[in-house]
Amino acid sequence: GFPSIEERDLFRVLISVPGIGPRLGLTLLSECPPAQLTTAIREENVKFLASFKGIGKKTAERIVLELKEKIPLFPGGESAPLSPERTGILADAVSGLVNFGFPAARAEKAVRAILARQETTDTVEVIRAAFKELSR
């Protein structure tokens, strides 16, 4: 079994990538904390991923390409903890931006940056600011 449901779900997502089988997925999870792994994928850190035994540059690139849109659904690797109210704003704003066609990972990164700079509790204001940032 897995120590947590999140780790099991991350394993399942990892093995959905062509070239990543159960053995390689378990190796990744045993050598790297899930939060660090999800952060590396979100930040497209191919060099870090390729540093693990059994993963070359091309496989690392494939992991990033396949998973960077799925990884924001997993906890961990967040820059700073948010209050429950601001976590709700984050989720709503990211959802709104994804509906506009922005990739989830970019939307989450932009919204987190806005929330770090501004003390607003207005979701619409956060979406507008993130939309401007993403449209540059």
Structure description:
- By secondary structure, this protein is mainly α.
- It folds into 2 domains: 5-73, DNA polymerase, domain 1 (Orthogonal Bundle); 84-134, Helicase, Ruva Protein, domain 3, CATH 1.10.8.
- 63% of the residues lie in helices and 0% in strands.
- The chain contains 8 helices and no strands.
- Helix 6 (84-99) packs across helix 7 (104-117), helix 6 packs across helix 8 and helix 7 (104-117) crosses helix 8 (123-134).
- The radius of gyration is 16 Å and the shape is elongated.
- The relative contact order is 0.11.
Please specify the SSE layout and strand pairing.
Elements: H1 5-14, H2 22-31, H3 34-42, H4 46-49, H5 57-67, H6 84-99, H7 104-117, H8 123-134
Keywords:
136 residues; mainly alpha; DNA polymerase, domain 1; Helicase, Ruva Protein, domain 3; 2 domains; 8 helices; 63% helix; 0% strand; elongated
Quickly describe the structure.
It contains eight helices and no strands. With 136 residues, it is an all-alpha fold.
